[in-house]
């Protein structure tokens, strides 16, 4: 694993769900879901959410991620045999209050103190991202929160990564992009960004165009890679 510092980085851009925010915390905090079903529900909910973003992008039938998240939850609940409208509403509300991973605030503070720009680049809608950022008290640690709704297509479309370049007014190689999603990391690399793959979940490398510049297990390892 190459852990030598990256050079020329002026901004750090982060994926949101799974990278800054723990998407599993919604189901794990919903004690109304029987314990044996929580992990299955969480995995299926996330899997279908991602699948639906890709399939909608391929079909040219975009809908914002709040709708997609609800549709994915409906599929997951039906699959595990739960039919409860109140429980569905509670799970959706919990998705607006996801926990940030423990190291996130301190890492963002170090990056800001070093003079680096910080931003989110996410499939999330502006409303969802705003709620998550406020809940985690990260408002003052981010220079921008960028949603795919601006371009009307989900990752890994190149228009999404171009959005970060345009908004930050930097060359792609001056940006370090961090994602816990392997497919997102490979796509951002293929686009031309520097990429640090935050491999929280022990995923295997993808067989896709591009390749992350560095790999870490949590964002706690990021400041050292940037020499800050």
Portion in strands: 5-15%
First-to-last CA distance = 20 Å
Shape-level CATH architecture of the largest domain: 3-Layer(aba) Sandwich
- Give the helices and strands as they follow along the chain: EEHHHHEHEHEHEHEEH
What does this structure look like?
The protein is of the alpha/beta class. The protein has 2 domains: about 10-20 and about 100-225, 3-Layer(aba) Sandwich (Rossmann fold), CATH 3.40.50; about 25-95, Orthogonal Bundle (DNA polymerase, domain 1). Helix content is about 45%, strand content about 15%. A 6-stranded parallel sheet has the order 5-4-1-6-7-8, with helices on both faces. Strands 2-3 form a two-stranded antiparallel sheet. α6 links the parallel β4 (about 115-120) and β5. The longest helix has 25 residues, at about 35-60. It is globular.
